């Protein structure tokens, strides 16, 4: 999928305090699971993408902690928790 | 293990409403919030309807940092190349007490938390509840960052995914069919520009909803609220529709395209986007609620599934505030009997049943099914647009009579299908 114009810049407006460990990760061996492909469409931050090998890749940078991927893909596919207290996105307007 | 009367998980509206009410009655309440400050993780569209909760918190509203009272309502139907708008205003909307206000949560929740603290509630921020402490199937406390804290009752107000209620066995991760995702930009504009563009006098505000091409025919719509010095512009779309319905489109693209519609572009022109946020919204109604109480635990707000879309209004925050209030009342009742078991806390369900919260969800229990009709999001918007186009068109040659112009869109098959759709909508 093509990079959506301006999304990185838009996420750059938000305040993030990166956690030492990513709070969401793809469970090992699930990279090709069809349920995971849903995340490519539903993630409002565009953090999931499909690579040439047909695997879904994920980056945590810019995660808005909205919870959409957990609902769309499920907990069999994703290891999902919120960031440790005091980390992650900090909305100034909300 | 340090012990409190009540521990509230999450400083959102439900949690803070519970803490405020309990602290007012002199209980030792601790609120645990994982963000840097209350509101740091909270997102709304957003508009708060005050009427249903005004009397539950009589001291709160006079100084509350709300944005603008909403005195103009608009609903627009977007077809691919045209749109049709219904606009409503009235004396009843322009008079105090105003029925609804635009709101920004980072500002409001932080202030509300301060009010709860003034009543005596304790607040610890940057503190994520890692898990519940259970003993013989009963919730007795929480673990947070290595600390163990106990309480007679834990109020799970940790939002739409509520990992706390999930751990207590009161809910499951949830069916994507019952949830939508909302994402929005806050766009700063000068106060005077906002007032000019939206026909507002002074502090008055406007609310606009959009359906149709905004979501490419998927379940959902767009929204725009005027804040004091910014606009909240965003999209809500059903999660299952988003990954399943054709055409496939990435969520962020919907908002980018929405902003480029001429109807929207001129409203946000010259504005500066200052934040991009997103959040899941429960939209399943009664059928997707969590169990509301267990041994030593109550569930309130989005965590319980208290949010409702009936087309003309999308509401959740009043239900969060009210459920937090009734959770607090339930704790007070349970204390009278020193019974914090599920049986002792069941009064929470009774209080909610007797309130506008459950009455609303009963009244509108058919809304989710009636509204998920894909024809509302594509077929009707295009139809309405085409009818308007032909009615208003003045061609070079002679113009067709008006009735036949409309009638060509409304054959027997179309009318029959419309009749069927109308019957479903009449259940709302």
Characterization of this structure:
The complex is a heterodimer of chains A (94) and B (428). Chain A has a two-stranded antiparallel sheet with strand order 1-6. In chain A, strands 2-5 form a two-stranded antiparallel ribbon. With 94 residues, chain A is of the alpha+beta class. Chain A has one domain: Alpha-Beta Plaits, CATH 3.30.70.20. Helices cover 21% and strands 19% of the residues of chain A. The mean pLDDT of chain A is 94. Chain B contains 16 helices and 19 strands. The model of chain B has no long low-confidence stretch (mean pLDDT 96). In chain B, α1 runs parallel beside α3, α1 runs parallel beside α9 and α9 crosses α11. The N and C termini of chain B lie far apart (50 Å). In chain B, a hairpin with a 7-residue loop joins β12 and β13. In chain B, the strands form four sheets. In chain B, strands 1, 2, 7, 8, 9, 10, 16 and 17 form an eight-stranded mixed β-sheet that branches. Chain B is α/β, with parallel strands linked by helices. Chains A and B meet through α1, α2, α3 and β6 of A and α3, β11, α6, α7 and β15 of B.
Structural class of chain A: alpha+beta
| Largest sheet properties of chain A | 2 strands, antiparallel
Quaternary form: heterodimer
What percent of residues of chain A adopt helix (DSSP H or I)? 10-25%
In total, how many domains does the architecture of chain A comprise?
1
**H/I helix tally of chain A:** 3
Overall radius of gyration of chain B: 23 Å
**Low-confidence blocks of residues of chain A:** none
**Gap between N and C termini of chain B, in Å?**
50 Å
Mean model confidence by pLDDT of chain B: 96
The residue-averaged pLDDT of chain A reads 94
Strand content of chain A is 15-25%
Number of strands of chain B: 19
Q: Cα distance, first to last residue of chain A?
A: 29 Å
